[in-house]
């Protein structure tokens, strides 16, 4: 073979390109993150921002593929997948989380938080940050708290103004022992169910109602299958961005920081969307035909929950609940 200078340099260029491509391919790791709600939702915004920020902060070495609408499974299934490592990441409500990290149960106690500012301060403060570390020994790295929002009741049967109005309503609940105990205490016939099944269950009348934040009600178009909405705000529902522990530990120190910072940015965007959804939710859902009771007397619901709350005080410690309730 007669290699002149020009063809040699071409060969070198070609080799260089090939090596560069190989290096590029080898250096890019793709991960999966899932949510149970739509892309156009507070959680969709959260994981979209997370994916962008991870890619940006790791100079494209990590790519996060986003999956919406429970397409990888419901929240419990996704958490299981993250724990096993068949999926690296998920953004989930705390609904099914106590089945994995029992310490989180306390967060879902009804009427624990006054408002979103209170909840966000507690979760971003020492209590919430300490709670994130409880995931470490269970196969997770909990990257950050994000938000689902204050949960409200919907049903297809009647206006709910007073706790008595809930008696006998068959409602889908999350697979969360605290929710189930509280709703039973209100006389609700509880039917725990994974989120991806809820729309059909409401449509077919398998259950009369469900409860979720305005963000979820709008994103999931529950107005198409539910007539009555009461702004009970009975439980504050956080979200978590969870990562498989081993996948996190494989990251360099700088990349660990990048993932945590990306999760914080995701939470910021997600909470801003919850605020926007809360601001427009009632008028939007009314315009879609829902009857919205927006002057619920919450004190009556708190009073109706007194016996259940006494149980919660025994279970979680009154001092622990008060410390959260009284946090500024
Ligand atoms: O995280 O299961 C639920 O009702 C959750 O609030 C929903 O999946 C969004």
Give an overview in words.
- By secondary structure, this protein is α/β, with parallel strands linked by helices.
- It has a single domain, classed as 3-Layer(aba) Sandwich (D-Maltodextrin-Binding Protein, domain 2), CATH 3.40.190.
- The protein contains 13 helices and nine strands.
- It has helices at 5-27, 42-57, 75-84, 116-124, 126-133, 177-185, 198-204, 214-219, 245-249, 253-287, 298-304, 306-316, 318-325; strands spanning 29-34, 62-67, 89-93, 140-155, 170-173, 189-192, 209-212, 228-244, 291-293.
- The strands form two sheets. Strands 1, 2, 3, 4, 7, 8 and 9 form a seven-stranded mixed sheet that branches. Strands 5-6 form a two-stranded parallel ribbon.
- β1, α2 and β2 (62-67) form a beta-alpha-beta unit.
- (2R,3R)-2,3,4-trihydroxybutanoic acid binds at residues 36-37, 75, 93, 95, 148, 174, 195, 212, 216, 237.
